[in-house]
Specification:
This protein is mostly helical. It has 6 helices and no strands. It binds fe (ii) ion (2 copies). The site of one fe (ii) ion has 6 residues, from helix 1, helix 2 and helix 4.
């Protein structure tokens, strides 16, 4: 298969990190009165973050881990755990708080800090590793796969499932 050498999964993922960084900056600069803006920004964060994280977990991290040495495997283990902590603790906490409150502002700030930390570490360790382990043609193929996956039934279904899981956790917390 002919690959487009200009495509690069690492550029795509880094670009998505930057979009998330921008969204969190915007959320952090809202006041407690900006309920609708906060809801809209949070929805944008979710729709950007969920496919990105799912694809990394299901496709990209396993592919890197397969070729990585011990330190590389450790970096992948860290990345998985950071995803898990955000998905199971931080994100449900944000979604369980009312957007017009200081509690939301505090939780959203932690959410942004966690994502910022994870993205920076991923860029400096995982992406660096991927650049060493994969050829330019392979990184280009990953980029095409990712785009197709995002538009596919499998991509939509896995993101939908993650959203439902988050909603159930949120409901459970509200009742507790
Ligand atoms: Fe990640
Ligand atoms: Fe990422």
């Amino acid at each position: 298969m002919a690959t487009d050498k200009k495509r690069d999964i690492l550029k795509t993922l880094r670009g998505e990190h930057d979009e998330l960084r921008t969204l969190f900056k915007q959320i952090n600069s809202t006041t407690d009165r900006a309920i609708k803006t906060r809801e809209e920004l949070l929805a944008k964060v979710e729709s950007g973050l969920l496919p990105h994280a799912k694809w990394e977990e299901d496709v990209f991290y396993p592919a890197i881990r397969d070729r990585a040495d011990r330190d590389g495997k450790k970096a992948i283990a860290e990345a998985y755990l950071e995803h898990h902590a955000v998905e199971s603790i931080v994100m449900p906490e944000v979604k369980a708080s009312e957007p017009g409150t200081p509690e939301f502002a505090g939780a959203a700030k932690v959410f942004g800090e966690q994502i910022g930390h994870h993205a920076s570490e991923e860029e400096s360790t995982v992406f660096k590793l991927a650049r060493e382990l994969f050829s330019a043609a392979e990184l280009s193929e990953f980029d095409e796969q990712y785009e197709q996956w995002k538009g596919s039934a499998a991509g939509v279904a896995s993101v939908g499932a993650a959203k439902v899981k988050g909603a159930i956790k949120t409901a459970g917390r509200t009742l507790a």
